[in-house]
Amino acid sequence: MQMVDTLARRGREVLAAIDALWKRKGYGPSVREIGAEVGMESTNTVHRWLVILDEAGYILRGMKGDHRAPRLTEKGRAEVATQGSAQRARERAPP
Predict the structure, then answer these.
(1) Domain containing 65: what range?
(2) 31 and 46 in contact (C-beta within 8 Å)?
(3) Which of 11, 40, 56, 76 could cysteine-pair with 35, CB 3.0–4.6 Å?
(4) What is the CATH number of the domain that holds 72?
(5) Structurally, how many domains does the chain consist of?
(6) What is the pLDDT of residue 7?
(7) Residue 73 CB: number of other CB atoms within 10 A?
(8) Each residue of 27-65: pLDDT tens digit?
(9) 46/65 Cα distance (integer angstroms)
C-alpha cells in the first residue's frame, strides 16, 4: 500500500512541476527541466513518469507543432488544483 502512495506523490509532483514551468516560462518544459524541478536526476525516470501520466490521461505529449512539451489535460489541471487546495489548507491549519 505504501508503494501506491509514493507513486501517487511523485506523479503529483511531476504534474505540479509541468504546470509551474508552463506558467513561469510560457512554453513547455523539457525532461531535464522537469527533473530539476522535482529533484530527479535521471531523465529516464522523468520520461517514465511522463509515459505513466500520459497513459493515465493527465498529460498530452507530442502535440503537433510542439513535440517536446507535455501539456496538462483537464484531468491533470483538476489534479493540480486539488493538490494546491490541500496544500493551502495544511498551511492554514493551526500547529
Answers:
(1) 2-92
(2) yes
(3) 40
(4) 1.10.10.10
(5) 1
(6) 54
(7) 16
(8) 889 999 999 999 999 999 999 999 999 999 999 987 665
(9) 22
